[in-house]
Write a structure and sequence with these properties.
Length: 679
């Protein structure tokens, strides 16, 4: 956030002889950064960058207050003067007392609400000094009352609004949340359809204010205004930000409200506004002060250990100097034994939370340039590999395996969402979709990969693609669950090729992975031609042939084999401890064995049975062929296993191989009802 402030305005409150350029330099070194200085006639204008956590500096007085602390610590002559009128007594000074009925439906929407009615208002142009300062700050002057609201916002960092009292029907203001679809015409003559939950004010008949963003045209100050309501308040920052995002509409006031304002200085801002209204518009106070402030925030006492301060800064800072710096910044600070006890001022409550924040405040005013520059001593800490690094390594490995990475949109259409058949309560729908094709956050990456294959099937006949991205599952009122997923799709489909990729992935990421049958059909995969991917007892994904319903939607004629695994879950599981095994000194014996099984017998079940029966001589079992034919029998299949016999101290003897093979054949026949095929 950047603001423009004339230096002459700052000097109203910062009494110092320091030149404008020197002032800019000291501010940039220890406070808000002055990005540019522009000379306009006899004045200078600062272009100030205000960070999101330092909205207390987003005003003329806030900047003057910050500069005074820095200059005073440097030994420069400087003192701070408060704006005129902030101590004006807000009591009626006319016999015609007016009333205003204020109702706040939810105090959390508006932590503090102040208002006062002024009468005898004479609408005219503002004095030249106010008009010039507003224009130099980038705001167009309108009239003396409206200009006061903008002037206060820039001067004290407190947005405010003015209503024409006679146009508030029933002299009533009700602050509440908007209802979905309500409409209001704002000051810029735009009709805005409101989302649910925006903060609005209505009188006895209609909406008159889109709170924190822009007032309503039906209650604005005009040339005929005689009575006005000056209105200074604070709103819930999250609600204001959500409304500006939903409406794609942000104002200067909203930019301040959505970051939070100082609740304690709200009456001062109102007093200053009344003072200017009396001075520039001949106004008189015509009502009692309305000040609704029920939940006053507590000011926490923060303890800073002197030793911790010195350890962080790398040099000795005298406790009295630290207390002086904090006091200059508005903190209540005192020394208690070997610690500093400090309470932040009201304008820093949202920014200063703990002792590290105090150290930062002391360091910047002391001057970072004054701290010693020393290279840290000791060993360089070696941090464990983070997930981002592991993902980069995984992507590189998949590329070397012959796969092509793609990047697709996370937003899909309603029809594409229907392919995944998510539960209704798990769907994440965009509130303001650009088109119907970009309406939902995808629950699976496989839909997007299949779409890419459909778009490229005529350009390239052999497609092997992958993507690593997040999927989105709704969780009620909480943010959607966003797990990192890896999806691979191969066209034309080859289950064993994809299974090979899965085995390589398991080795790359160092996790155990097994394939197991799953009882419930996955909506994207074919029945009986898919399996669950498990790590231990936890399912982390699926692999198999995509359902024809999915491929037909994208006009893909051949089968597509795919897998999708949850990397967030996998990386959260224990890694396999890598151990060293020397290369065998003696050759292995490899032979194939074929057997006929029922079609429903899972290959993994066959492999596990053969491996267990062949221990310890059999070191590896893999399927090299699966054959189905009517000659084998109804619902039968022939499976050929390749067995590797290995010993560490000698080549396996033929008798040992025969014994192990017979044991495996016996187990397959008895436990899986197999029929061993003879050569």
């Amino acid at each position: 956030m950047n603001i423009k402030i004339p230096v002459s305005w700052i000097r109203d409150y910062l009494k110092t002889d320091v030149a404008a350029k020197t002032l800019a330099n000291v501010l940039s070194a220890s406070g808000p950064s002055i990005e540019k200085i522009e000379k306009v006639k006899e004045d200078y204008v600062f272009d100030v960058e205000v960070t999101s956590n330092r909205t207390d500096s987003a005003s003329v007085f806030g900047l003057a207050r910050e500069a005074n602390a820095i200059l005073s610590n440097l030994g420069e002559k400087s003192h701070l003067v408060n704006p005129k009128g902030i101590d004006v007594v807000l009591e009626p000074d006319t016999s015609n007392i007016l009333s205003l009925d204020v109702v706040i439906k939810d105090i959390n929407l508006c932590p503090r609400f102040t208002a006062i009615i002024i009468d005898n208002v004479k609408i005219k142009p503002s004095p030249a000094v106010i008009q010039n300062r507003l224009m130099l700050s980038g705001i167009r002057p309108i009239n003396n009352i409206v200009d006061i609201t903008n002037y206060i916002m820039l001067e004290m960092g407190q947005p405010m609004h003015a209503f024409d009292y006679d146009r508030i029907r029933g002299a009533k203001m009700v602050l509440r949340e908007s209802i979905e679809g309500e409409k209001i015409v704002t000051l810029d003559k735009t009709t805005r359809k409101l989302p649910k939950g925006s903060i609005v004010i209505e009188d006895s008949e209609r909406l008159i204010d889109l709170c924190g963003i822009m007032g309503g045209a039906n209650s604005q100050i005009s040339k005929r205004t005689k009575k006005a309501v000056l209105f200074v308040q604070a709103y819930d920052p999250k609600t204001i930000k959500k409304t500006t995002q939903n409406l794609s509409f942000r104002t200067e006031a909203a930019a301040r409200f959505e970051k939070g304002v100082d609740l304690e200085t709200i009456p001062n801002a109102l007093s200053r506004a009344v003072y200017l209204a009396k001075t520039n518009a001949g106004a008189k106070i015509a009502s009692e002060l309305i000040d609704i402030y029920k939940n006053k925030p507590k000011t926490p006492a923060i303890t800073l250990n002197i030793r911790k301060l010195n350890n962080y800064l790398g040099e000795e800072i005298h406790p009295n100097l630290a207390i002086k710096i904090l006091s200059l910044l508005g903190f209540e600070a005192k020394l208690q034994e070997k610690s500093i006890i400090a309470k932040p001022p009201s304008w820093r409550l949202d920014d200063v939370d703990d002792d590290v924040d105090l150290i930062e405040e002391i360091a910047r005013i002391y001057g970072y340039q004054n701290l010693k520059s020393e290279i840290p001593k000791g060993e360089i800490p070696i941090s464990p590999k983070n997930v981002t690094e592991e993902i980069i390594e995984l992507k590189r490995a998949l590329k070397f395996l012959g796969l092509t990475e793609i990047i697709s949109y996370s937003i899909i259409s309603k029809k594409m969402l229907g392919l995944a058949q998510p539960k209704k309560e798990e769907i994440v729908e965009l509130q303001n979709p650009l088109t119907e094709n970009w309406q939902y956050m995808r629950p699976s990456i496989l839909i997007s990969l299949t779409e890419v294959i459909g778009q490229n099937r005529y350009i390239q006949q052999d497609l092997k693609i992958f993507e690593i991205a997040k999927t989105y599952i709704a969780q009620g009122d909480d943010l959607p669950k966003q797990d990192l997923q890896l999806a691979i799709a191969v066209f034309p489909g080859d289950f064993f090729e994809v299974k090979g990729y899965l085995e390589n992935i398991a080795k790359i990421i160092g996790r155990e992975i097994q394939l197991k049958p799953i009882a419930k059909k996955h909506p994207l995969f074919r029945q009986n031609q898919s399996a669950g991917v498990f790590s231990g007892k936890e399912q982390v994904g699926e692999v198999g042939i995509l359902d024809s319903k999915t491929t037909n939607y994208f006009d893909i004629k051949n089968a597509v084999c795919a897998l999708e695994i949850n990397l967030s879950t996998l990386y959260g599981l224990p890694a396999v401890t890598k151990t060293y095994k020397s290369i065998p000194k003696y050759p292995s014996v490899i032979e194939d064995i074929s057997a006929i099984f029922t079609s429903k017998t899972a290959l993994d079940e066959i492999i596990q049975a053969a491996r267990k029966a062949g221990l310890p001589l059999v070191t590896n079992v893999e399927v090299i062929d699966v054959f189905q034919d009517e000659k084998l029998g109804i619902d039968k299949k022939s499976v050929t296993l390749r067995l590797t016999y290995q010993k560490s101290d000698a080549t396996p003897a033929q008798e040992e191989v025969t014994e192990a093979r017979n044991k495996i054949s016996s187990v397959l026949e008895k436990s899986l009802l197999a029929r061993i095929r003879k050569k």
